Structure formats: structure tokens, C-alpha cells
Amino acid sequence: MPVETLTYAALGARLRISPAAARSLAKRLRLPCSLADDGKALVNVDLAEIRHTPRPRTGSKSGDASQLTVKIVALQAEIVRLEAAAAGHRADFEHERERADRLMAELRQANAEAMAAREAKARLEGSLRSGGGAVGSIDGHGQAPRRLGHLAAELVEADRKARRS
After folding, report:
1. What is the DSSP string of 97-129?
2. Residue 40 DSSP class
């Protein structure tokens, strides 16, 4: 077929595409271009060499708007679902945080009781080493055996508290 000189609008009409698409195609194929006397661009093209198949049209604009509306509604529903899930996760987080705080308080209490038990044990051992070991010895009014009894009772009580925790 011979080379024809066409405007972008005429080329678009022959190829069943828009004038803007025809201009883009001419640029992509690097077709020679010139200006007409009226200022319009002319393209020198051999239509037999161009293998262009136009894409099928996607539909009307109102169909696109309705599809977008459906997508927007679906995305809004997804946002609501994700916000509900996030609120549930936040509630779980708060519950676990309170649980961890309670456990830390219990751990501190148990640690304090264990320290008290160790101190009572050390006092009892010190008392036994310093002279309270002789049960029959009397230091004035029989205070040593009584003091040892109190220290032993403190130790037993501290041990019971530590076991409860």
C-alpha cells in the first residue's frame, strides 16, 4: 500500500483509536511528521506496515463509577473489620499488661519474703554460734533460749509465707 499523509485525527479514525492514541503510536513508531499550512501535524504512514490492533474498550464511564463505588464500599467494610480486630487486640494487650503487673507485684512480695527469711536464718545461725548453742546456759534470766525460740518461730513463719507465694 502507498504511503499516506494523514492528521492524527484521520489516522485515529482509520485505526479506530483516539487522536491522542494515534499521536502516541506515531511517536512510538517514529513516523515522519510535518506541519500543514493550517498548523495541524501530518504523519506519513503506510497503513499496511502498521500492525496495530486496538484494545477492546473497558466499558462506559458510568460502569467504571459503579465499579469504583463497589470497591470503595468493600474497602470501607474492610477498614471497619480491621478496626474491630485492632480493638480486640488492644483489649488483649491491656489484659496481659495488667496480668504482668500483678505477677511483678507478687514476685516482688515473694522476693521480699525470701529476703526476710534469709535474714532470720542468718540471725538464728549467728545466735547459735555466739553462745546460744548451749541450751543449759543462762545469761541472767534465761533469755537466750527464749530468744532462740522467737528466732525459730520467725524463720518458720517466713518460710510459710514464701511457700504460699
Report:
1. HHHHHHHHHHHHHHHHHHHHHHHHHHHHHHHII
2. -
Domain ranges of the chain: 4-45, 61-164
DSSP notation for 42-75: EEEE-TTT----PPPP---HHHHHHHHHHHHHHH
Most confident listed range (31-40, 43-52, 90-99, 133-142): 90-99
Report the C-alpha dihedral over residues 149, 163, 111, 121, rounded to 10 degrees.
Answer: 20
DSSP 6: E
136 pLDDT higher than 60 = no
Q: Answer yes or no: is pLDDT of 148 > 80.
A: no
153: left (phi over 0), alpha (psi -120 to 50) or beta: alpha
φ, ψ for residue 39, nearest 5 deg: 95, 0
- Average pLDDT of the residues of the chain: 83
For 51, how many CA atoms within 13 A lie in the half-sphere containing its CB? 0
What CA–CA distances, in Å, run from 112 to 103, 115, 152, 160, 163?
Answer: 14, 5, 19, 13, 13
